[in-house]
Structure prediction request, 201 residues.
Amino acid sequence: MTRFPKIFLAGAMAAGAVAAPAIVAAPAHAAVSQSSPSAFVESLAADGLGALRTGSAAERRSRFRSLLGQHFAVNQIGDRLIRRWRDDISASQYSAYQRALPGFILGTYADRLSSYARADVEVTNATQRGSTYLVQTRITNPGQRPVTAIWYLTRTNGSYKVYNMRVAGINLTLNQAQDFDSYIQRNGFDRLVRFMESRGA
Prediction:
């Protein structure tokens, strides 16, 4: 179960990085732009940078929870991760899973995100495919090779949200869904939820 949260780590890494070189980093808590997919990614990156660079661990957790709730389609991501099992679980199991998901993300990664605060995120392309907006970026962390990441965005009620990423050619949602499948097959769905709850406590 070690690979499950990579989709969120990748998203948080990008959200916590510097925007494109031509963009001046916005201060923490600045409004994330909804004017275009590219502007959304750039401003989310700049806002995340401010959130990761300053404050105590508790403050960074609080700001990350805010970013996560506002700008990532957490429920949609969660649904995709358990798509194979959705018809086999009860309403109460599903509700428990949804409740556990945000805390699990925070409990696993919120305190580790500062290592990505010095990265650069440069938007290199943006396209639309039906109702999905694809924003291609180049992520460069000091001392590491640049990585291409594609953000998958949805737009609901006038707001963009991140619901998937492809990093270095790997579809992170698909990858994590496979990890979920393996874990549930071995341990059952309820045990997965208990594990998530324990990590988010």
